[in-house]
């Protein structure tokens, strides 16, 4: 499982030597069985991951998820190293792929800033290297330097694979070509992608990932909880999410949510598992739904090992298209 321990962290299951992988979710441990048919290579890299991961954005982003409760952020950072060390001690036979991101902040300039940030992360994680290092978003300027920094990280043995996040088709192609000159594959592009946010299909990002052999890692794959069915027009999400998933929007979404539930009942699956399986059915997509506890992580595992029919996939897409598209991350258009 890939683990980024920052305020916008994510996890993705890894499978290389063992037949089982265990997922770390908050301070709990959950066993998730993995079979060969649930394992994929990450882009053109040698890194192998399960088709589903665990997102941890909500662990530490107090401004968006926790209504500025700073104690949540503090607890997140206190738990992270303790959880990591405990997992290694308890399950020494399992392998966990660790992923982290570089934030292209305006004052971070050049390739050295990418390496410096990575080394700081490695120091905090008490690791010599991580499996995946991604640029969190395109730089306003100096983007070529950031890509060079990714390449340097690979050549210095600090990472196994590199990727980007929130990259448009144009920037994706540029990053791919720049790394290709050094014989380094661009392994992933992590973007907002779900049944009700299909912009990567419309702006060329999904098609470009498929064409170039870049894995698409889908964040917010259950639309920040909306596709679970837990929210209704009378019970909208708290905080900033309430401005996106309004009562009006949730009213329009009810036919889709009802059908997701019905389909799930036919398979003895939850709406969450149906929504995730729909994404996996798109091929070359690794969803990383957000988990706040072990129970949620275990539920996500139920999205593997079965498949929606093509008719069901198409029916859900058609129903979803009748709702207004939600607002995405502005940096997608940089």
Automatic annotation (TrEMBL):
One of its GO terms (molecular function) is oxidoreductase activity. Pfam families: Aldo_ket_red. InterPro entries: AKR, Aldo-Keto_reductase, Aldo/ket_reductase_CS, NAD(P)_OxRdtase_dom_sf, NADP_OxRdtase_dom. Gene3D superfamilies: NADP-dependent oxidoreductase domain (3.20.20.100). Residues 89-319 form the NADP-dependent oxidoreductase domain. This is NADP-dependent oxidoreductase domain-containing protein. It comes from the Eukaryota. CDD domains: AKR_AtPLR-like. GO terms for cellular component: cytoplasm. It comes from Ambrosia artemisiifolia. Keywords: NADP, Oxidoreductase. PANTHER family: AFLATOXIN B1 ALDEHYDE REDUCTASE, OS07G0143000 PROTEIN. The keyword Cytoplasm does not apply. SUPFAM superfamilies: NAD(P)-linked oxidoreductase (SSF51430).
């Amino acid at each position: 499982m890939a683990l980024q321990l920052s305020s916008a962290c994510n996890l993705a299951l890894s499978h290389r030597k063992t037949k089982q992988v265990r997922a770390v979710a908050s301070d709990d441990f959950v066993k998730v069985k993995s079979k060969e048919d649930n394992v994929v290579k990450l882009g053109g890299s040698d890194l192998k991951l399960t088709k589903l991961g665990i997102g941890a954005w909500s662990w530490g982003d107090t401004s968006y998820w926790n209504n500025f409760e700073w104690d949540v952020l503090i607890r997140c950072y206190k738990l992270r190293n303790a959880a990591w060390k405990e997992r290694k001690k308890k399950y020494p036979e399992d392998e966990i792929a660790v992923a982290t991101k570089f934030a292209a902040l305006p004052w971070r300039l050049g390739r050295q800033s990418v390496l410096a940030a990575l080394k700081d992360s490695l120091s905090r994680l008490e690791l010599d290297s991580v499996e995946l290092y991604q640029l969190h978003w395109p730089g306003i300027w100096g983007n070529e330097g950031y890509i060079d920094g990714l390449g340097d990280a690979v050549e210095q043995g600090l990472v196994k694979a590199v990727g980007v996040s929130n990259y448009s088709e144009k920037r994706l192609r540029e990053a791919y070509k720049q790394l290709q000159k050094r014989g380094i594959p661009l392994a992933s592009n992590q973007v907002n992608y779900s049944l009700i946010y299909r912009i990567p299909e419309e702006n060329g990002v999904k098609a470009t990932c498929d064409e170039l052999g870049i894995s698409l890692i889908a964040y917010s794959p259950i639309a920040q909880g909306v596709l679970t069915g837990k929210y209704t027009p009378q019970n909208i999400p708290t905080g900033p999410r309430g401005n996106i998933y309004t009562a009006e929007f949730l009213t329009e979404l009810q036919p889709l949510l009802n059908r997701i539930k019905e389909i799930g009942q036919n398979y003895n699956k939850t709406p969450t598992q149906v929504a995730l399986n729909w994404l996996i059915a798109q091929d070359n997509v690794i969803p990383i739904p957000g988990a706040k506890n072990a129970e949620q992580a275990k539920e996500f595992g139920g999205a593997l090992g079965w498949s929606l029919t093509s008719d069901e996939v198409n029916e859900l897409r058609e129903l979803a298209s009748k709702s207004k598209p939600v607002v995405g991350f502005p940096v997608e258009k940089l």
